[in-house]
Amino acid sequence: MSGARVVALVLVAAVAAGCTGGADPTPPAATGSRDGCCATSSTSGPAPVVEKPLAGKVVVLDPGHQLGNRHHGSEIARPVDAGGFDKECNTTGAATNAGYPEATFTWKVAVAARRILRRLGARVVLTRASNSDDLWGPCVDVRGSIGNPGEPGRTADLRVSIHADGVAVDGARGFHVIRPGVLDGWTDDIAKPSRKLAVDVRDALEAAGFPASSYQGRNGIDVRTDLGTLNHSDIPTVMVELANMRDPRDAALVESAQGRNRYARALAQAIRKYLAR
Ligand SMILES: [Zn+2]
Question: What are the pLDDT digits (tens) for 17-49?
Fold first, then answer.
């Protein structure tokens, strides 16, 4: 086995193990580890070739809400088609008791997950370009359509919509993954693969040490047919409520960079596993 091959495998193993101390899993220099977390051997051979297990794959990440939605009440209240029925374009989202907004949490997790997935070779499309307090939307029908066959841009292999809940009930904490139920003419074609994706996301979050929801769904998975973001999808999709922001233990994870990076790594692991099939 060549030195380059050894280094490449070490890098892949390091990413798989989340051995990055919560930081961007930048490949360490060939002469040693960047942060001391992952041992690498010295080599004077050619530059290491990092394996790209997700090369050619396209992933859509949908960071829920938008920070500026709070200033655009009338715009986001505008009804849009959510799957054969009308629903509001978007909402302001939840917040922790300290006021940390869901839109910021979902944005940061999505950006961190994008970084990991790109290093694995995937092309990643986000459904919004920033977390600006000056912007609003996009609406749920647009979020649920990006990456669909026939839409502008490359057709994606899957879409994960990232959210966090805001339930003010003592003891209610943990994540739940929402998969689309069968809605004839809308999700009947994607319900089955989306179920597999939901299991992969649930399993990865549990493996990363996050508790499944104590208040919603069953074993960390819920099924819904009332969500425009899911109903508009023509590719396998799930929405994940990563935490209950009103729970103090979940809020501590949401408000910390380390917690957000843990969520991001778990999502990237799940996506990698699903796309490996
Ligand atoms: Zn949300």
Answer: 333 333 333 333 333 333 333 334 445 677 776
Q: Are 126 and 114 in contact (CB under 8 A)?
A: yes
Give the gyration radius of the chain's Cα atoms: 19
- pLDDT band for 50, please (50, 70, 90 cuts): low
Helix ranges restricted to H, the chain:
3-16, 73-77, 102-119, 140-143, 191-207, 228-231, 248-255, 257-275
**Residues of each domain in the chain carrying CATH 3.40.630.40:** 58-275
CA of 195 to the centre of ligand 1 (A): 20
What is the Å distance from ligand 1's center to 65 Cα? 6
- The gap from C-alpha 170 to its chain's centroid, in whole angstroms, comes to 26
Cα-to-centroid distance, 136 and ligand 1 (Å) = 14
| Cα dihedral 192, 90, 163, 135 sign | positive
Q: Per CATH, is 58-275 categorized as 3.30.450.20?
A: no
Q: Which residues are catalytic, by number?
A: 241
pLDDT, mean of residues 13-19:
37
CA of 14 to the centre of ligand 1 (A): 31
Q: Kindly list the protein residues that place their beta carbon closer than 5 angstroms to ligand 1, a single-atom ion.
A: 64, 93, 163
